[in-house]
Amino acid sequence: MNFKRLWAIFRARNHEFFRDRAAFGWNFVFPFLIVGGFILMFGGDARNQYKVGIFPVKSETFSVAAVDIPARFKETRYLQFIGFESEQEALKKLNHHKIDFLVKAGSPKNEYWVSETSPKGYIVEQLFTKSLVPAHLEPQAKRRKIMGFEIRYVDWLFPGILAMNMMFSALYGVGYTVVRYRKNGVLKRLKATPLSAVEYLSAQMLSRIFLLMFTTVIVWTGCDLVFSFRTVGSYFNIFVIFFLGSLSLTSLGLIIASRGTSEEFSSGILNFISWPMMFLSEVWFSLEGAPAWIKTVSQVFPLTHMLTATRKVMNDGASLTDVSYELSAMMIMTAVCLVIGASLFSWTR
Amino acid sequence: MLEVVNLVKSYGAVEAVKDVSFEVDKGTCFGLLGPNGAGKTTTIEVIENVISPTSGTVLYKGEPRSASFNEEVGIQFQETALLAFMTVRETLKTFQSLYEESNNLAELIEMCHLAEFQDQYNDRISGGQKQRFLLALALINQPDLLFLDEPSTGLDPQARRNLWEIVEKIKADGKTIILTTHYMEEAEYLCDEVAIMDSGRIIARGAPDELIRKHGGEKSVSLPRGVLNGKMDKLPFQSRGSQERVELLTGDVNACLQSLIHENIDLSDLTVNVQNLESVFLNLTGRQLRE
User: Fold this and answer.
1) pTM of the full predicted structure?
2) Buried b or exposed e, range B186-198, using 16+ CB within 10 angstroms
């Protein structure tokens, strides 16, 4: 291993990243947009999860307060009421799942419609029928408060968005770029120099990790200033987790980078890996209650371990010892991917 | 300096290089000529260690190529892209860092005339500038052996002449050069020895003068058909030609001219076709279109 050569390629790759203004900017803007978008959609009082149609009403001047439907139903949180002038128009929307539930205003029998196959419709139906029972006749139940800090949805989501951004950047930044370099002959030109494959691949990896950590620190700081995340654990621990996560994800990218000259094919393979990883690593939703085999499959992905460890540190204040299983998994995955990537690597077509 | 012995390179059932052998002496410029698809680039890339041979041996300085081979050779590929978003100067510096020993950057920039565009990005320079830049990259490590694969393809005549001048300087420094080219004029101008390849084999080899003598065919004198009307029978030469011109084949141009003057033939539109490497090339590889 010659560090002068490694450093030269490391610097060249960094130049490319920082000078490609469009891609560089997007790496920072994308996570802000996603987090901001989710806060707009799900933050505060605007978190309406269920859509309830009401007819017959004048849709332009519609106000739910003035409509004759059960009072307790009107006051239920997270319901969005939409007015329709005719039954026919409203039923069409229900049939197409544009709304989850439909109720007839001023109906003495409290007539309603719901799709048999709609899970959301079923939930609203339960709320509707419950709202018909007077409050004093309801069975007794005692509400208890959650002790300690409440974890906001955005606090849970943010590490996922950041990790997802890192995953795409690691896989495409190494896998796609090296395939492009092989296709256009850059790798062939480098092969004609004393640069070894290990030096070249190490430089690619280290450059990508440096860039990932750089962008992640800036995005984290920026998002924190705007959205005020609550981090219980140590930032150093999160940094270590992100570093190992980047290492394991870029190593995975090296396997894709090791062969081939077709950018379209590589893109397909990258999608094949990144999409299941995104959905099964709890970026968007928890796998709690999912079938055991799905949970087992999710353990194959480095993103799962990076995200689990980060959330444990961020939300529960876990130490590095507490997340040693996740750290070990990422280290093992890095070693395996590096060996496979380096042994398969080809400079030319 | 370099010895290639019984080199074979196959791609599946296709044999691109068939039992090729030759030697290149230190300090010479060796030209590998041939029509498109003759196997020149494959041969040169096997020697460069970019692709591995199916069989055969390549000896550099009398021994199989070792790890230091890449330190001692410079390569200009026929087609290549370079690191994106890097200036010419930065790319040279990057490549300089890949070698243990390297040329002085300022001298290299001056020799290859890169100064005026050294701060431009790699992909923002003209064809002629790119070829000079690629040549500079090939020279960055002060190579003992330099490979130039069709270095002047696509260049205008001025840019080509300019490139030749640079290669002449490199030759004057005692470097060994292996060159592939389509341009016979280029080979004749730069090469001390050439090998002509066709269908994966070397079909002729030697110094350009020697090949011209051996395979150049007869010299000829060409005239408009009109000036020879009724006089062809009096001339003791074999002829060939088109509707407009007649080519008189002769071993002695002086004798031919004297005969023409003797017959009072108008010589104002006369052309003497001398033997050159192009006639050798066409005589050996045929005049039919290959691609």
Assistant:
1) 0.77
2) bbbbbbebbbbbb
